[in-house]
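REQUEST ID: PR-0412
SUBMITTED BY: lab tech R.K.
PRIORITY: routine
TASK: structure prediction, single protein chain
INPUT:
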Amino acid sequence: MRYDTYIFDLDGTLLNTINDLAASCNYALRSCGMPERTVDEVRRFVGNGVRLLMVRAIPGGDSNPRFDEAYAIFRQHYLHHSLDTTKPYDGIEELIAELNAAGKHVAVVSNKFYAATQALVRHFFGDTIKVAIGERENIRKKPAPDTVLEALRQLDMPAEAAVYIGDSDVDIDTARNCGMPCISVLWGFRDRQFLIDHGATTLVSEPREIAEI
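STATUS: complete
OUTPUT:
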């Protein structure tokens, strides 16, 4: 373990959230009389925050006159159903425990809205992850460096000894914008070729490999 600090993305990296995201997306679409989306479609839509997920899912995006209504329905439904099927990927809990045992600093930075990020991290990881930052109005979301820098500030750790771990092109760009190395995971929402095409240089197939880098 050559890093002192490990900053993780949430969806597709620590937690498999795709089925709950798709269910809330389709509940909102159905409630507004719009066509539903497949899980694979939703998988392609995620990564840039839930608002953009709904922009991509709703016919006409945010120019649709019922966009705000559908987006509000999605947020409310997801807050109550984000734990229906969501769970950590195999090996993640063991990895977090190993990092803690080694005295490493661990944080989560997500483009998911703040309340859901906090609730999911506390539910699944308790005090083993002390800093969890989601999307907020007054801070730019990833790939801007703001939320990662805020996590480092709360941890009181420098970026020089930190690594960012995620499953998407947004995560690769986020790490680059922070001047940090990026570990790209292959169990998430994007495949190997997609990640390589978007600049991934370090890829892992299992969580335990992260502790070996």
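NOTES: The longest strand covers residues 105-113.
REVIEWED BY: pending
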